[in-house]
Queue: 2 jobs
Job 1
Amino acid sequence: MLTFSATSSAFCLIFILLVPLAGAGLALVNSGLARSRSAAQLMMSSLCVISIAALAYFVCGFAFQGYPNQPAHVVMIGGKPWSWLGDGHLFLHHIALGGSPESLAALLGIFGAGLAGSIPLGAGAERWRLGAACLSSILLAGWTYPLFAHWVWGGGWLAQLGANYGLGQGFVDTSGASTIQGIGGVTALSIAWILGARRGKYQHDGMPSAIPGHNGVLVLFGCLLVLVGWLGLNSAGAMVWNGLPAASSVQVSINTILSAASAALAAALVTNARFGKPDASLTANGWIGGLAASSGACAFVEPLGAVAIGAIAGILVTFAVEWFEVYMSVDDPGGSISAHATGGLWGALSVGFFARLPAEASGAAGEAIAARPGQWLAQLVGIATLIGFVLPLTYGLNWLLDRVYPQRASAEGERQGMDLHDLGAGAYPEFVTHSEEFTER
Amino acid sequence: MKILGFLLLVSGWAIVLTAVALLTEQVPRGAFVLAGVGVEIIGFVLFARAHPVRRGKYE
């Protein structure tokens, strides 16, 4: 059973309290990449989604996610136990909320669910109704996220692939590359598919039109804010979900910033080579993709490995944005699918190639050794689960929700902007265009 | 095509799970997991292609 000293608990709590800054940064990024007529609605959606995700996770999320060595629903397959759902108490009952590892996991889970719930907002920007986003986030934070989180962090069958089937050390995800970013990313893809593209996004020949965001400053400031939140998320995740000491946060933080930096620079270089100038929004998406990828192996890689992981993530995200937009006809104003799903899945896969996982208790404890054979296979099984199970699940749930409560705003509402449609007031009421400013005097 | 893509996505995952549960040798297990992922990718592409730009409804 994992235990923390009072000092470690205090450090862990400080790291966790940084995580909401990642949500705030994502809200700014999503808002800045949308048009001004939907900016306030996006910020409001972020606030509501984080609130509802916290409540849903409190009500049943943590009970479903569970915690290692706690009661869980288990089925026996071929004589091996497959733990598939936590069997904890609803409403966080019977959890010592005094700094125990379980209570810290619950707190981090609340913020993690909110962060995952914020990701689809970028993909549904400018056409996703506020009420629908709130209802969808209940499904995400109350069921989809806890279910997969149990499999990865709650002692579930993915985590046990090593013990049961000899696949490395089982599926490893230090701080949520798959569990937070991957879940949020595939949900964003489901939402983008269900909502369809914005009006005017695609021409009659099927080619996309460029619809620039309204405020690049918000986007880039959001990226810097996201970094602070991610440093907390990765450091706290390493402690809570991997049992590492507080001192590991130094390595984790170095790897996090190196991954983000190399991803952003890689995206800037790629766009500079292709378009003649670095593209700010793609560089921002590359930065976030690098952070998402860093969450996979940040506690178990050398700094040079983190640079490689980030650089590959930055390149992948840049091309994924174009692939989804041009070839898949997926309208994703905030780049959420490319940054979070692509970056997160790559981060999860990178564990199999770059991580040097510590030996288990029977080996030289604490001494870094090469991962056991099959680690890449365990990671691949986890990724296959995200694509082959979570994506259909989240699509199906949101499709059903769409039947009951249409998720897309009306054509008229979309034309006038989501601010007026959902909130009755714009984000910038004094922001009007004076035609005389554009005429010669 | 959407239903076919959806079924292929889930079928690919089922192949992956079956390979993990039933096979013990690393090479065939890895091969079947990769095959399952391949089926998922085909399903993903079919599923994505089945979502046309809903221009007529929203333009």
Job 2
Amino acid sequence: MSDDLVENQHQLAAALNRARAGEDKELGQRVRDLGEQFVRLTNALVRLCKVHAPENDAFDEPTRQLVNALERLDTLIGQVSVVCVEGQVYVNDIRVRMDDRISGPQALEAELGRHGCGGLTFVKPIPDEQVRALTACISAAPAEEKPLHAFVQALRDCGVMEVNPQGRFRLRMSGEKTRTATELELHQTLERASGVVADAWESLSSNRVPNPLPVRRLVNELVDASATEDILGKEEEAIGGNTGSDEFARHSVRVTTFAVLIGRELGLPASALADLGVAAMYHDAGYAQRDEAGFAPPFSHHGTAGARALGRQRGFHQAKIKRMLVALEHHRDFDKKPSLYARIIRIADDFENYTRVRATGQLVSPAEALARMASAVGTAYDPVLFQLFVNTVGAFPPGTLLKLRDGRLVVVVSGVRSFESFARPMCRVLRNADRSMPENELVDLATTDAQVAEVMLHRR
Amino acid sequence: MSTPPAETEAPLSETEDVSLEAELHAEVSFGGTPRGQAANAVLQALSRAARSFLIYEPTNEAIRIFLDNLRKSANTFIDTYGELQLEIRPFELIHNGEVVYLDRDRERSLAFRLYRDGVRKLTLRPGLDWQELLKLLEVMSIRYVGVRQTEDDLVVLLWKAAFSHIAFEAVEGFVADAEDEGGVAQSSGTGAVVHISAPPDFDLPLPVRPRIAPVRYRVVPQAAIDELLAEDDTQGVAGLALHLAEELLAALADPQETLTFSDLASHLNETREFVFSEGHMAASLQLAYAAASADTRDPKSEAACLEFLQSFVSAHALRRFLHSVSQDASDAPHELYAMLKAIPGDHLKTLVEVLGTEQGEASRRVARRLIEMYVKDRGDEVVSYILNAPDHLACELLRVLRHSDLDRTLAAAKGLVHRGDHNVQLGVLTAIEAMPDGPEPVRILLQLGMSGAEDVRPKALAILAARRSADAFAPLLTKLKREASGRLSNSEAESIGQTLIAIDTNYALTAFREWCRPRGLLAGVLPGHARLQRAAVAGLAGVPGEEAEALIRAVSDKAGSELQEFCTQVMVRRRRILRGGRT
């Protein structure tokens, strides 16, 4: 037996040890147990509805238990999403494993499926009478037309407002469709990001254990997209003008986008880019914390508050360590030796903070923000990382409002495409010289004679 | 909408009593065509190798056999047939329309594990190298062992692996059915009603940057990039974890900070576990020092801090460390010694407890070295532990003493010599062998020379012979005479004869003359006489001179066939010895 096999054996054992160190046995098991209870009790109550009225005493005990299970799930994981798909049930991404002799998942899937429903989202735990109403609605005959709409309406009519029925699901296969192939999907990913971040924040603020998995999957999509697409430009096009989305969530997504771009320019492998992206998503987690009076921590302490919140996730994982370091150090100057990811996110975060369109408008233009930040290279910012960032976003970073010499007002929608186009990005025309507003007209400053006359600021 | 599933299977039992042979025959061989059979061999090898960490200790040789089988079978298949494309069904794997793997046992089945985790197609392509196959095995092993990770599910693990010659088609998540009524279903990312926002002044005040500097495109030298990439090396995780812990502990000194030591306890414990299990002892020590100097303002935090420090030298932590040492490790790093000295607690007791349960030779060796440092100041306690310990632990502790304290080794040996366990007796023999001669060691050797264990007696006699211990002569002679007619075996008689000659040739010859040429009519036929003669002949084998030869011949002339044959052998051997040849 060769020595290299001994070495391989050690490698595998070490990898398993690391994996074991990163697991959270308790959380997974508790969610699984409670998920199983949910399925079993819901099925039992639906069956009871077929022989008794919901007010019948026979409902009392299983209803009480179901209310209790939902409350405990809420405490553990926050908003509870139950999804039935191909004979399996998932509770917030965690597959519920049930005894083969009990057709629990299939029965629940069949009952919900009659209404065209594939899952239920509990925004918050529901009381006894709403559990009875919910199970009665599931048990009732489905509408012949648009059964899912009718099911939703029936729930609302019964006063069940915190349960959102979902449509049917099917499993999506890799290779089925390239996720990043279309602008539409990237657009959807970016839009969805705000919701995912908002959910993560809600969970953190409720002192729940962080669950980075949904954020990680989202970031994986961004990382994949960044390999083939100008996500900076797409990001600007997708949500640049969307002032309706939560400012904080948008901040997180933009910082993530910038950080992933710096990481990619640096040459980090995809898995490291994903870790970096998740760290960027959570970098301001401290602000989700609340003291006894309900106040968020001040700027000076949001780093430690963030690290503390992220540290609630059990299990040792290098990605978690990096996230916590980022939360702690992302405002620390380069000369104080913060970690690599914190240095990357420091650049992304400061740039976003300078250029964000606030209620009062934009403080400085992206171009000016870069120039001001450039004055602190070597003290506040890592010179190499900053140059990589500059090489990515260009002299006029995406989102920069430009007035052209021909009188047109344009917004930059591309990052750097080549050395030559460093100061000549692709732009979308917002307003023509005659003040008319074209629809989706692009102008490439690298291939036209259009000249930049002035850098403008966004105003609300 | 995309909310991929994560794995949450319960961990399988940590150990199963499954023999290697049973394991090899448990799965059904499938595949009718030669190609199918070759595919079956790969899949069985993959399945067994992935399960092996569940069944065997990580260092067990069986695992290497499985790894070797996997490597060979995969190479054979790809070299012979090229691509191995598999369709995954719940209990079967299909290749080229042929069932090439079938196992309906959910706990064991490779097909079921893959299917359950959402993998629907798996392809091994030509060019696949061993490192890539190992990575696949790693992913599969993690799933088999049943680790539930909040950080990575199977899809993320596969994504991270970034295979070049292994392709997957896997379930990546849920999507709303295309025939959905639309407008009703909501993603989990948008369903929440209550949203928490940051304060309106978040991240303010902004850094003041009154000056501006030119922004230009510049090519970044590769060396500068490489330097940064090196910072993200996986090997540096321990350093990052330590850095984080130090930062958090330092933050406790801030009077405005609401963070307490208690808040950090679980994270610090995870870090300690990691650095210990990875064998980063310098980082462990640094972590302990950082914790020891942390500002613990309230009694609860102070207690948590003490508990944390003690956890560095708990039985659990020490086991983790010992399991991480390399096979050829001879000692623990100095950092561990430093921690044992600095952190309060009865670490000798803990180490003895740990030593009692360790199986690996290397880990026991290192544990013994650690216990050695307590011998000087707490030697009597060590002796007490030895005398009260079960046999295997007593042996280990005796090894500790014999390296550091001969007086106490003797005391412990005296207490152990009466134990019936032959390993204990061999341990005592080894301990005594290293001691200078004296009445006590001789007494112990004599006791062992009369031990009930057949492998102990000759060794004890050999030591006495080598030492020429005069005090042993008379007791041995008495034993020989007394037991010659009884339980003494031929080989023992020979050993005693050789020992007697070695201790005192003249006295021994006196006795031997009497036995070889007995006087009196009945002397030669008394019970046991033949065995005494055998002892004498064995002793005379190495004695030069004609007398010795004449004595042997005298025995031979009147002996029965067995003793006669022995005499002949001895004569031959003796001549060789005396000629300076080999025995």
